[in-house]
Amino acid sequence: MPAWAEPPPRPVRVQTVRFQPGQESVTYAGTVQARVQAGLGFRVAGKVTGRAVDIGNHVTAGQVLARLDPADARLAVEADIQAVRAAEAEAVNARAEFQRYQRLGRGSPAYIASEYDRRRAAVDGAEARLAQAQRQLALARDQLDYTELRADADGVIADLKLEPGQVVAAGQTVITLAHTAETEIVLDVPENRLPAIRAADTVEIRLWSQPDQALPGRVREVGALADPMSRTFAVKVTLPGEAPGLGMTASVRFGHNGSARIARLAAAAVVSVDGVPSVWVLDAATHRATAHPVMVAGWLGDGEVPISGGVPDGAQVVTAGASLLDAATPVTAWAGAIR
User: Fold this and answer.
1) How far apart are CA 113 and CA 122, in angstroms?
2) Is residue 174 classed as helix, strand or coil in its secondary structure?
3) CATH number, span 10-22+260-333
4) Which phi and psi (to 5°) does residue 43 adopt?
């Protein structure tokens, strides 16, 4: 080849510019948590005789989780049953005596008003003691029922703090139950991103265990106080349906629809030419590339750069080797993959 002959065009990878309605977005990683985590405890004191669950077990509402020794509670029930029977007998006797005295009538010489009042008061007192004994029996039966700790909702056992033989106090938290009826993604968001979170038009959730499935989300709560160590705010995003597993990792994308049209280019396509962000636009007819300054709309950090102007729609921009080009180098589009 003569020394003066032009070298053959250098193959370069290109990408077609396509402007579309812009959408700014930010993505954060978080963990799946239950919205409600209830600390369960026995309503009476006693000795643990057994437990029916372990950490991680799924339970249903009403399922027995643990039991206390019911011997004392059963004795209390039996004693109150006898107290009710005694009160019933006393009430029956008081009513009978009152009715016999009442049949005498006010015209009888044996009728004494004060005695009538005394016997009527005795009936009222006997009936009150009977009602009190019945309430005490109902309370004793409740106390017996409280020796069994039951789940108050469907959920997963998140923590256990009891073993058979352990003596627990009334109200002491022994089991933590994470309700599965409603789950959420908990994110740590820096303070400068909170306005974008609050103004997001779309919220998209992707579980790392199911990356191909996008789920709609809803911002339920933005923390009022920053974490003292990380200086971030806790943002809670409601997850529709039941999560496949608590503690899983998920990414949440917050999108905001903009009015400007942008084109997403491979990050390698945008280079600095004379200190200005630019792209090299390929002219297929002359096999030359020309540098065009562009307006960068932001930095996504995911291998793409959005631009809002500087090149026409449909232009072919160089995406590989752009930093080595100049206006004199002949180039041609390579037919391989774009990226």
Assistant:
1) 14
2) coil
3) 2.40.420.20
4) -90, 0
What CATH superfamily classification does 25-36+181-258 receive? Efflux pump adaptor protein, beta barrel domain (2.40.30.170)
CATH T-level assignment (fold) for domain 39-68+153-179: OB fold (Dihydrolipoamide Acetyltransferase, E2P) (2.40.50)
- Taking the CA of residue 91 as centre, how many other CA atoms within 13 Å lie in the half-sphere pointing to its CB? 17
Q: How far is the C-alpha of 98 from the C-alpha of 118, rounded, in Å?
A: 9
Spatial separation of the C-alpha atoms in residues 9 and 1, rounded to whole Å: 15
CA–centroid distance for 218 within its chain: 11
Token pair recorded at residue 164: 């058979």
Token reading at 38: 């209830």
Ranges of each domain in the chain: 10-22+260-333, 25-36+181-258, 39-68+153-179, 71-145
What would the pLDDT profile of 77-92 be if each residue is shown by its tens digit?
999 999 999 999 999 9
pLDDT of residue 301: 56
Quick: pLDDT tens for 95-104: 999 998 888 8
Q: What is the DSSP letter of 45?
A: -
Element (H, E) at 144: helix 113-145
Alpha-carbon distance of 34 to 141, in angstroms, equals 34
